[in-house]
Design a protein that fits this description.
- By secondary structure, the protein is α/β, with parallel strands linked by helices.
- The chain is 34% helix and 22% strand.
- It has a six-stranded mixed sheet, with helices on both faces. It has a three-stranded mixed sheet with strand order 7-8-9.
- The longest helix has 18 residues.
- The structure holds guanosine-5'-triphosphate and magnesium ion.
- The site of magnesium ion (MG) has 6 residues, from α1.
């Protein structure tokens, strides 16, 4: 390692659904944060560590900042806002296809008191004509003294290398905080739960995606067939939702299980036997003790 090694922490913030987790996974080259077209997919802060021989950048993916409607939402927004204080630089991501809105103004207001470089990243440029970018850049330029404004497509990878170069330029010299093979701060157990929740997000609609939590009950290396046994519970808020998650003759639950198993096998690099249960915990998103139990603990962040 040379002596000009650079390192730093970068928070990724923005409204829900702009592509924060997609960007982080693209850079890390592995799915550590789940992604979906439903708003409020990410619920916790998740580190993604990028390491090469010149730099280490620790990205902090955060929940989309929105107007909370329950205690879980309060937790999510607080997590995202607190992340601003813990980093060297901030990446504020917007959606090229959506334009400026009140939600963005709320975030810009939060940034006023933060004395750190803020990079405006305009994502999803694959969805717009290049002519649409200039007016958007002009509009945002006047709202905040951004360090730089960089358009990218996290999905297709356009201009992501350039963005990484820009970060590298601005990073201070510093140590390699994490071993080079560490890509996240969360244990496999957490990511496995998230991968199951992702499939529920992909396969269900309306109020279901937001009503679901996943609890891992057991992970066990089985000697008889060398598979990893994963037992997990899908927790929902109302009895009436149980039928939707289980589906006709159990079809929905089977689909969720099959898709989640493929992702978990990719994560662990072994064959997996996945067992899923469905449980009802009335109104869990508003119950502090339940939130704690499901891993939404304020004091840990
Ligand atoms: N076309 C296009 N779609 C994208 C791009 N980046 C992300 N998406 C899509 O946008 C949706 C949201 O992506 P996520 O990465 O889950 O967004 P997020 O900002 O992490 O969302 P929250 O966790 O809810 O705050 C998904 O359907 C992605 O496939 C992009 O560059 N181009
Ligand atoms: Mg996300």
């Amino acid at each position: 390692m040379d002596n000009n090694y650079k390192s730093g922490f970068v928070a990724i913030i923005g409204r829900p659904n702009v592509g924060k987790s997609t960007f982080m996974n693209h850079v890390i080259g592995q799915k550590i944060a789940i992604m979906s077209d439903k708003a409020q997919t990410t619920r916790n802060k998740i580190q993604g560590v990028y390491t090469d021989d010149q730099k280490q950048i620790v990205f902090i993916d955060t929940p989309g900042i929105h107007k909370p409607k329950h205690k879980l939402g309060d937790f999510m927004v607080k997590i995202a806002e607190n992340a601003l204080n813990e980093v060297d630089a901030i990446m504020f991501m917007i959606n090229a296809d959506e334009g400026y809105g009140l939600g963005d103004q709320y975030i810009i207001d939060r940034l006023q008191s933060i004395k750190k470089p803020v990079f405006l990243v305009i994502n999803k440029i694959d969805l717009v004509h290049p002519d649409q970018l200039l007016p958007l850049i002009e509009q945002y330029k006047d709202k905040y003294p951004f360090e730089e404004i960089i358009p990218i497509s996290a999905l297709e990878g356009n201009n992501v290398n350039h963005l990484m170069d820009v970060f590298t330029e601005h990073l201070p010299e510093g140590p390699q905080y994490y071993p080079e093979d560490q890509i996240t701060d969360h244990p496999e157990r957490f990511i496995i739960g998230e991968l199951i929740r992702e499939k529920v997000l992909h396969l269900t609609r309306e109020e279901i995606p937001h009503s679901v939590a996943v609890v891992i009950d057991k992970i066990d290396n089985r000697s008889e067939d060398e598979k990893v046994l994963v037992q997990a519970s899908i927790v929902i808020e109302r009895k009436s939702q149980k039928g939707i998650i289980i589906g006709k003759q159990g079809k929905m639950l089977k689909d969720i299980g099959k898709r989640a198993r493929i992702d978990i096998e990719r994560l662990l690099g072994t064959k997996v036997y996945l067992e899923l249960w469905v449980k009802v915990q009335e109104n869990w998103r508003n119950k502090p003790h339940q939130l704690q139990e499901f891993g939404f603990k304020q004091d840990e962040y």
